[in-house]
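Figure S7 source data.
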Amino acid sequence: MGTDGASTRSGSVNSMHRMIKLCHLDDLPEQNARGFDPSREGQDTVFVVRQGNHIYAYKDLCPHYGDTALPWRKDEYLDPWGGTIVCAAHGAHFEIATGLCIDGPCMGESLPKVPVQIMDNGDILVAIDEPHGGGESP
Amino acid sequence: MNIIGPDTLIFGVDDIDSCTQYLLDYGLESVGNGRFEALDGTGVEVKAKDDTSLPAPLETGSTLRKTIYGVADQATLDAIAEELKKDREVKQLDDGSIEAVDDMGFALGFQVTVRKTLNLPAETINAPGADNQRGLNVIGVEKEASPKPRSLSHVVYFVPDFAKAEAFYAERLGFITTDRFHGVGPFMRPAGTQDHHTVFFIQTPPHMQGIEHFTFHMGGPTEVVHAGTNMVNKGYQSFWGPGRHLLGSNWFWYFKSPFGCNVEYDADMDLHNDDWTARAIAPGADNSQAFLLQFREKWAPMGPPPAADQ
Ligand code: FES
Ligand SMILES: [Fe+2]
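Tokens for the predicted fe (ii) ion complex:
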């Protein structure tokens, strides 16, 4: 079963991060993407793309303006054919496997990767930055 | 030249169904053949990317394929054709419009405008010291409302050379620069409208050339926020807003879209005539908005800590 880089183990993630469960592999249709809000920020901050048994995870942050989430509607991260990741704001296209922008305004820049791990039971875990206190005002 | 403003934007897209649903949810009326109209008859047309009736795409693959300007009368149309024929091909189309390509490579159309004259009230307010605008016992807001876009307002383009763009629109088409961001680009209005801008150019690297956003005028700020809230409730994702711009004073709310550009609602833009002197200010977050009332989907103070699984 492939993971993003296949190198991340919960033990090797440094102490600023912790692994958090997003969903189960069966929750993601093959060739599909889904956004999550693991640190409860009020909007999706991480998304995962499933291609067969491979899972890729990225921060939901377009490198073009630097502070924009990608989809035009919840979970609409892919082009109509499921071949690339798209930022709807100005139509940037990114490779699913690498996050590299191959077409559009931020060509050559990449989506920030998020370490992801698929457990034996199919749970999908990502490393998130330690949350900054549940009560903090934005 | 008596150019009034954009009548129609034509897009060539990947996902016609999503774009169609988006425009209906945005509030435009479907009139058939992939055309969607605001109350005054201006609108957007959606075609498949490979539709052979479309002008050739830009190399960058921008989904905007043509901007059609409405002009006052046939004499204006003839004058534009005459002017542009000096150094480029001007096509005469069957519907009476003309087509040419501007100095950046954007396909332009010109036609006697399709705009219908609207007779609708603007949003009214009451304030101490002023005569009440709305009248007694007239309610200002309802929980449910579906305000309709009134008129195609403006288009914003990413261009590799804003000075070249500004020169073309000023010298060849008679547009007037109302304000500018230093080093970024001008806001321009054609001579036939008093709107602060119907076009704004943003300087970018050449591989970004295309459309940044388009927008329709609403009846007032309440309508901008109401229509935007309806979009949020239908699952669309805000890009920026609601807020109020500094240059132009227009209220705004931008949404991402399946068109690969942002789509805005705007209201209450400044009007200008030739007495106005263009301002030039530094670009940046501080000068792009007077204020921002950021929408937040589901934030609650002191919310629960992140759960181990959801
Ligand atoms: S912000 Fe993503 S393409 Fe511009
Ligand atoms: Fe705008």
